[in-house]
Amino acid sequence: MIILVGGEKGGSGKSCLAQNIAVYLRKEQRATVLMVDCDPQRTTSDWIQERNNSKGLDNINCVQLYGKIRNELLSLNNHYQYVIVDCGGQDNLALRSSMSVADHILIPLRPKRRDLKTVPHMEDIISTCKMVNPKMNAAFVITQCPSLPSLASRILEAKEVCRSFDFEVLDAITFSRNVYDDSEESGKSVMEIEADGKAAAEIRSIVSELFSKGQGNVTQQFEKIRAIG
Ligand SMILES: Nc1ncnc2c1ncn2[C@@H]1O[C@H](COP(=O)(O)OP(=O)(O)OP(=O)(O)O)[C@@H](O)[C@H]1O
Ligand SMILES: [Mg+2]
Fold first, then answer.
1. What is the pLDDT of residues 106-153, one digit of tens each?
2. 138 C-alpha vs ligand 2 centroid, how far in Å?
3. Which of 32, 131, 140, 202 could lock 162 by a disulfide, CB 3.0 to 4.6 Å apart?
4. Residue 13 CB–ligand 1 contact under 6 Å
5. Closest-approaching ligand to the CA atom of 14
């Protein structure tokens, strides 16, 4: 299964989300996972390097791919249960070719005007890619939300903007929490800092809701993995 975490907005939390999802599937679902880093900034490759140099963490493989990567992704998908693509923050060939084969596309957005301004263009790209990849399940997820109750309306408004483009937006969100930033330092995920913490629960909810919106529900998908494994 190919999961793409993409979008045009820098700093929305794409790499952070891709990494935490990878660890969740590797560590808690015991799946085989490959990360594909398409971003010349190498955020995910550097994180993987830190991770694989640290003792006691589940190893995750990572490759860097750029440009027209459709065929490479399809071929890698035969060898891993999950291929997780971190596409960086631009509309480029790697993003579009990943979209043409991805099973799930997750687009993080902060509840901020500049992030929400990218929704119409993302909708354009996704509609075009859906013509070649009709089975794709694409959803926005609102990230780095403020926890102040007085700002809760911003989260709801952000979801409304996505829905106004007839777009799936997950109920699950991430709040702005230091543990996301702190965990990256040593190649860790939020689950490895605080397994029962709120951030870990956010990641589990995001994966579970994303998969439930795709083909088959999450339990069926995990059963399929166990059967293959
Ligand atoms: N929910 C969150 N709470 C707090 N900090 C977060 C959260 N999600 C991500 N961050 C932090 O925000 C910063 C940017 O995140 P990240 O690098 O994942 O963004 P990105 O979308 O991949 O950026 P780029 O477009 O440059 O690739 C990182 O320092 C990360 O730790
Ligand atoms: Mg990134």
1. 999 999 999 999 999 999 999 999 999 999 999 999 999 999 999 999
2. 19
3. 140
4. yes
5. 1
| Angle subtended by helix axes 14-23 and 198-213, to nearest 10 | 90
Q: How far is the CA of 15 from the centre of ligand 2 (A)?
A: 4
Q: Whose CA is nearest to atom 8 of ligand 1?
A: 13
Model pTM? 0.93
> Ligand 1: does its nearest atom lie under 6 Å from the Cβ of 7?
no
* Alpha helices, H only, the chain: 14-23, 43-53, 70-77, 93-99, 113-116, 119-132, 152-164, 178-184, 190-193, 198-213, 218-228
Confirm or reject: Cβ of 44 under 6 Å from ligand 1: no
Strand order in the sheet with 137-142: 61-64, 33-37, 82-86, 2-5, 104-109, 137-142
**Nearest-angstrom CA–CA distance, 112 and 81:** 34
| Amino acid code (one letter) for 196 | D
Q: Which domains does the chain have, with CATH numbers?
A: 2-216 (3.40.50.300)
Residue 32: half-sphere exposure toward Cβ, Cα within 13 Å: 11
Residue 34 structure tokens: 């490959």
